[in-house]
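F.,

This is the one I mentioned.
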């Protein structure tokens, strides 16, 4: 071993004496520094987010270096006049090859050190927590080590197999195929996920690598199963290279190196089985779900099948192996002994006549069902749990329905574009249970999942929408901090029992992980985010406190907003339809979700969306569809809801005058220009309080706009339909307090009077 190490030291020295090789690690570090040291002030300030994308580019490019070095390390000695002398050293072909691999690997470690040093410099400048920096450096260092190790072994093999004029082009083609072509085309187009085992590096187009908190728990099982295969694959290449070297340095036993190579090949095949089993299980599970899910053309309105529910008690326990066991108790009002429609107005449609249908995710196995304490028979079909309505007690106006169920949450999906994501998961210290997935029994509906024209599976956001339901949730045995879209109600956090309680219309979503919480005690608002976003979150809360105070002065009472979830969300929910991931922000109950990207951060657009949520109960995503439909109905029927919403923003800007300004949703429309003139004239007369009172009367009628569904199979949220307040109705309210005012002439975009 000492001889091998001495030879490895000589190999490393020979590389460093080339001098130009010392410049490349320095260049890699500079690249990382340029992309992370000073982010654009208008973009995300999360250094870890930029570092993740930079790691992907650097690892893609630098895997070419060990491939080429491996070829040169072998061919240099075979072509050099001193090669014959080198072969007479007391070193076997295997030892000689190992020495070259160790020398090349030590040299490639300089890249890891330079890149991590640059990242650390950026992290310290931006005040990243040391724990976060250490975790990210360790996570990516392992990926560099793995990629460089296998690439170097492949280069040594090609150098031993082919002459230099062929081995260098072959090494370049191997880099293109293993680092680019497989990821960017083959796996994406054909969805041959098992080919990921043959990547030279896994980061070029990985959907699971860019989340500081969840990436390790989601990609971890895959990487752990791949690691032994990568090690044995490298050993196959090195032993085969040693056997090929026997042509120049014949061993005492010519067949032994080949037998060792075959043994390593068999070991690599055995090491591939756990990963192949994981891919097979995931794919079969996804295909079974897709087979039972309706196509987009077959999905129906969820609301028609929803029945009324007063309250729900949930007790969820995490077992040692990661599976969950849950008990749900539903309080179901049954006037005249029958189920009632959720909205209390329309007539309930039965998904199956004579049956109460609950939606529960198909991965969950039902243990028992009780009605008013008595065990009853039930039927399970896909995501539906069916109970005969005749089993309800006709003498009771409220029935108690108890459902016990259990299972694993590991809902991996791959979309038609090859993008990967998780619909829900409970793994390690990570947890994501969205309300619409049916992780607890939902009171009726059409389905939880659907599939598009390509057969790709998708969730149906909004499946949990209902009239307000009182929830009591107990989470037990989870290994991380938990956050829900209803308020916490006490209990211990990590590992113990944690309670949540509140009334919710949008259901309950629960997330868990090593998230950081930034709080604004004055506004009772917190941001749940990744450690890399702490500083940006603190600055945002300082700014938004002023916005919230101004809105309270302008509008009076505001819709409750308790917390913001701000972190990358590309790896949760239905897979992205394209490589450009543009998930929309949305709200659930008193929680606002902002999917972070490099260009979507806690900026003025987030302020406006949260302002809209405080004022009207929606995030403003419905404004554009309303503008696009302008002019499609006669003027006397046109709704002024968008202009009234804009009046609040305009009044806020006029009274506060603080940057950034609240954007005007209806800016430029002829109706808004007329209303703006009314406001300006009244404001100049000192009637600001009357303006606020008029707007308040109109806001009481409801100004929430329906927001587009987040997937083609999802439901509109915030409102079922756009509010209709005509221009005549607006002027009636206005003239009630300011009768002397008349509506200014409305000029359309063509310059004509309306």
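My design for it:
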């Amino acid at each position: 071993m000492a001889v091998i190490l001495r030879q490895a030291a000589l190999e490393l020295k020979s590389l460093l004496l080339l001098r130009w090789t010392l410049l490349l690690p320095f260049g890699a570090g500079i690249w990382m520094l340029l992309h992370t040291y000073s982010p654009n002030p208008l973009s995300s300030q999360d250094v870890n987010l930029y570092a993740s994308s930079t790691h992907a580019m650097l690892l893609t490019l630098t895997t070419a270096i060990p491939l080429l070095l491996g070829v040169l390390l072998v061919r240099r000695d075979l072509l050099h006049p001193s090669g014959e002398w080198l072969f007479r050293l007391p070193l076997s072909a295997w030892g000689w090859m190992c020495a070259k691999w160790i020398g090349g690997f030590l040299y490639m470690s300089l890249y890891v050190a330079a890149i991590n040093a640059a990242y650390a410099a950026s992290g310290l400048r931006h005040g990243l927590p040391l724990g976060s920096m250490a975790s990210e450096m360790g996570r990516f260092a392992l990926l560099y080590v793995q990629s460089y190790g296998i690439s170097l072994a492949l280069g040594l093999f090609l150098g031993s197999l082919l002459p230099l004029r062929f081995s260098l082009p072959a090494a370049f083609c191997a880099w293109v195929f293993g680092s680019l072509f497989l990821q960017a085309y083959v796996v994406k187009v054909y969805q041959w996920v098992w080919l990921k085992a043959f990547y030279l590096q896994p980061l070029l187009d990985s959907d699971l690598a860019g989340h500081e908190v969840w990436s390790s728990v989601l990609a971890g099982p895959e990487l752990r199963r791949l690691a032994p295969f990568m090690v044995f694959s490298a050993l196959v290449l090195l032993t085969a290279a040693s056997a090929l070297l026997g042509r120049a340095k014949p061993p005492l036993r010519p067949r032994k190196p080949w037998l060792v190579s075959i043994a390593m090949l068999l070991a690599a095949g055995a090491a591939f089985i756990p990963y192949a089993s994981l891919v097979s299980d995931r794919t079969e599970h996804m295909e079974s779900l897709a087979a039972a899910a309706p196509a987009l053309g077959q999905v129906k309105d969820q609301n028609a099948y929803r029945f009324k529910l007063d309250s729900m008690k949930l007790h969820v326990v995490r077992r040692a192996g990661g599976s969950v066991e849950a008990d749900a108790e539903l309080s179901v009002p049954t006037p005249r002994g029958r189920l009632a429609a959720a909205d209390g107005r329309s007539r309930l449609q039965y998904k199956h006549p004579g049956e109460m249908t609950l939606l529960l995710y198909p991965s969950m196995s039902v243990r028992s069902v009780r009605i008013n304490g008595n065990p009853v028979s039930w039927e399970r079909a896909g995501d539906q749990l069916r109970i005969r309505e005749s089993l309800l007690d006709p003498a009771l106006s409220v029935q108690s329905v108890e459902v016990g169920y259990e299972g694993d949450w590991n809902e991996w999906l791959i979309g038609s574009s090859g993008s990967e994501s998780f619909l829900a998961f409970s793994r390690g210290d990570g947890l994501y249970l969205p309300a619409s997935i049916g992780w607890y029994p939902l009171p009726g509906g059409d389905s939880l999942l659907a599939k598009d024209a390509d057969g790709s599976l998708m969730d149906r956001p909004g499946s949990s929408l209902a009239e307000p339901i009182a929830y009591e949730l107990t989470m037990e045995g989870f290994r991380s901090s938990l956050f829900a879209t209803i308020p916490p109600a006490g209990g211990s956090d990590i590992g113990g029992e944690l309670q949540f309680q509140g009334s919710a219309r949008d259901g309950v979503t629960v997330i868990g992980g090593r998230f950081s919480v930034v709080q604004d005690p004055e506004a009772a608002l917190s941001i749940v985010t990744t450690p890399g976003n702490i500083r940006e979150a603190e600055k945002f809360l300082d700014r938004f406190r002023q916005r919230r105070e101004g809105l309270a002065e302008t509008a009076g009472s505001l819709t409750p907003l308790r917390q913001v979830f701000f972190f990358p969300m590309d790896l949760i929910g239905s897979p992205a339809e394209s490589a450009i991931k543009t998930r929309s922000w949305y709200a659930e109950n008193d929680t606002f979700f902002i999917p972070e990207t490099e260009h979507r951060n806690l900026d003025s657009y987030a302020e406006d969306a949260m302002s809209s949520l405080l004022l009207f109960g929606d995030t403003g995503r419905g404004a554009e569809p309303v503008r696009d439909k302008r002019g499609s109905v006669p003027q006397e029927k046109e709704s002024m809801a968008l202009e009234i919403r804009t009046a609040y923003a305009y009044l806020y800007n006029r009274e506060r005058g603080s940057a950034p300004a609240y954007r005007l949703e209806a800016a430029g429309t002829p109706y808004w220009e007329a209303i703006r003139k009314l406001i300006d004239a009244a404001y100049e007369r000192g009637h600001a309080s009357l303006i606020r009172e008029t707007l308040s009367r109109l806001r009481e009628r409801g100004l929430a706009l329906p927001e587009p569904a987040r997937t083609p199979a999802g439901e509109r949220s915030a409102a079922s339909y756009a509010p209709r307040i005509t221009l005549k109705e607006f002027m009636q309210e206005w003239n009630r307090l300011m009768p002397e005012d008349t509506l200014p002439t409305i000029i359309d975009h063509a310059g004509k009077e309306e």
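The chain has a mean pLDDT of 88.

Talk soon.
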